[in-house]
Write a structure and sequence with these properties.
Elements: E1 3-8, H1 11-24, E2 30-34, H2 41-51, E3 66-73, E4 76-84, H3 91-96, E5 108-112, E6 126-132, E7 140-146, H4 149-157
Parallel strand pairs: 2-5, 2-6, 4-5
Antiparallel strand pairs: 1-7, 3-4, 6-7
Family: Belongs to the TsaE family.
Pfam family, one: TsaE
Main location: cytoplasm
Length: 164
């Protein structure tokens, strides 16, 4: 399986990684974003959506739990569901809300705080870990790991060179 790590020096680096991911997306991907509050999960998702052609405002779904967006991949409209499960009290809430139906071969699901839904959440194709850099206290460290064949295909297509 594919594995990728890098250091993002600033917000522009996060935006550049989001743009690179947008160019590598495949329909049906499930991407889990891990990291503390303020680690850049929503910033990465916002950059990805804008780079994939979404023109509107991208807000954090902290209170709505999910926000839908439509992007273009290979001139096909693809639905992206952006989840933020931070406020969920149990995995049952995920199931009761009917969110599992969005995880299908056509929809891209990006999930912040996936640990809140635990075993109710379908497994990811890509796991992303964002953390504030421990070395310099500036920027973010990021690790992307493919956990399926589809995730490996996506990361194999990823073309990203951080600004050094």
């Amino acid at each position: 399986m594919q594995h990728f790590t890098t250091h993002l020096h600033d917000e522009a680096g996060t935006g550049a990684l989001g743009a690179a991911l947008a160019r590598a997306l495949l329909p049906g991907l499930a991407i889990h974003l891990h990291g503390d509050l303020g680690a850049g999960k929503t910033a990465l998702t916002r950059a990805l959506l804008h780079a994939a052609g979404y023109q509107g405002h991208v807000k954090s779904p902290t209170y709505t739990l999910v926000e839908p967006y439509t992007i273009q991949i290979a001139q096909q409209a693809v639905e992206v569901m952006h989840f933020d499960l931070y406020r969920m009290a149990s995995p049952d809430e995920f199931l009761e809300a009917g969110f599992r139906e969005y995880f299908n071969p056509d929809t891209i699901c990006i999930v912040e705080w996936p640990e809140k839904a635990d075993s109710a959440l379908p497994p990811p194709d890509i796991s992303v870990l964002l953390s504030v850099s421990r070395v310099s206290d500036k920027g973010r460290d990021v690790e992307l790991q493919a956990l399926s064949d589809k995730g490996s295909q996506c990361l194999a297509r990823l073309k990203f060179a951080p600004n050094l």
